[in-house]
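Before relying on records like the one below, remember that each one covers exactly one chain. Contacts with other chains, cofactors or solvent are not represented anywhere in the record.
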Amino acid sequence: MTDLERIKDLCDKLNKASEAYYAKDEEIMSNFEYDALYDELVKLEEETGIVLSDSPTRKVGYEPVSFLPKYTHASPMLSLSKTKDREELKAWLKDKKGLLSWKLDGLTVVLTYDNGKLTNAVTRGNGEVGEVITQNAECFKNLPVGISYKGHLVIRGEAVISYSDFKNINERIENPDEQYKNPRNLCSGSVRQLDPKVTASRNVCFYAFSLVEASDVDFENSRLNQMKYLASLGFECVEEIMVDSENILETIELYSEKIKEFDIPSDGLVLMYDDIAYGESLGNTAKAPRSAIAFKWQDEQAKTVLRKIEWSPSRTGLINPVAIFDTVDLEGTNVSRASVHNLSVMRSLKLGIGDEILVYKANMIIPQISENLTKSDNIEIPKICPACSNPLVIESTDGTDVLMCKNELCPVKQTKGLTLFASRNAFNIDGVSEETIVKFIEKGFIKEFADFFKLDRFMYDIVNMEGFGQKSYDNIIASCEKAKKVTLPRLIYALGIDNVGLANAKLIASFYDYDFDKIRNASVDELSTIDQVGEVIATSVYDYFRNEARRKEIDNLLEFVEIEVPVNDNEQDLKGKTFVITGSLNRFENRDALKEIIESRGGKVAGSVSAKTEALINNDVNSASGKNKKAKDLGIRIISEEDFLSEYNI
């Protein structure tokens, strides 16, 4: 095992141990073992100069910014010429040797290192001007922020989110309407966040694909040697295979098999000459370098017959057209439906029932219609909502037409809205799933938010419903009772205001000093002044609270719930103080509960002890744990839970 492999192995083991200890209250290794591995990691990092972004030795400061500064690239980042023809790729290579690698589908980022440290990270942007995302890049899961090379290094690579991480992130979002559409969009939004904490939570990875500058290193005129050098510095690089005219076709076929199980989004391959001088001597066209070419997968298409357009309502009122067609096999799976996205797309395809269409899987994953061979253009756009029979309207935004249901009492809106209200990040009503809500709506038990807190009127009916019983009823009532106390950000999020997630709800609540009445009566101009909110979100909030039916529903809700008011600013007595919590607790159900108290009074909670730590909270003050040992070495106080509560009047 190389030093780099051992560093990665140690980071992985130590991070898993920390996660188990802090998040799950489990110990998967002893303190003695943890400290030994930690010390080994510190030594290896000092010897090699490699410090990975997820190293437990790093002290990460997640300081949000108010905007992303613009940055002009030293030389324009050109796009690659493209082909879908394998023989054309072979002809392009001629008698030269080349590197064939994945063309990853994420966000291109340029990194600069000086004196062994990451000093700048910039998105590709429009090729000439990008955005500075250095703080976010430091949160990329696998990125070395410290390297052994002490000169000026510039590299390019792709920031990506894997399909498995994308799936896990979406599974944590209970409302399907708010789930992310694809990994690329999620990655782009994650990389360009103003708050690095968000980036850190998304498992963004970086894969280097090009070395731009390292002037004092001899690579013997070989791209392959450049990539090997980057790998030796700790960078993960795109997989590359050396090819020539003899093996390029079989290598393309090898990649085409691998992509079926490949966990990282890829929309093709990149072929570049290994001979650096030869590639550079070819120069550029107006739009693309001549030293490399992109190969796009020839999407497998199938001919089928369109049988129906299904109009699918959503919580926001958008009615999405979905094409239903005769089942075909694509990339090894049966496919019978594909989203048509909106009215503009449907019209451009001139779809009609009975038309012969060609369908494919975009990037081998998402079913799409590529072409309509018949173009009968006979789809009748519905005039009434399929869920509530109210009139539909066509709205146009930036030249794109969409079909909308404006009925606030539409049952689909109602179901999705009530499900969001009860979800974990909103009122957190345990035991009330979307399926249960549908049944309660059908029975007339729930029509609006406040009805969750009046379910005791239907005790007999619920107890005797199929699949329920006395215990189920008791659990639901207990959950509703517990949910009556709610923070203002959760309440705002629970209302289902367009474009307002929990993070924005927190920003808005904080801006108005947790005064709900001020928020309900705020103007668009005033709301727009909140950092990270902007006019679109501000207009959504304003419009929501101008609706009389919604205002009445909120008034009804407020008769049952108590908005928990956080500590006032003048009581933020822990502001500027950072605490570390370890071991079991007696007065709080878990560490998160104590963390919430500390943060509500302006303090911070870190995962490891540093010189800036105010105190280590550990009921076993005489423990020989690694954290106690480090606190003693740094002269940091170790206090018990009771000491903390007493000292800070909690």
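The first helix runs from residue 3 to 23.
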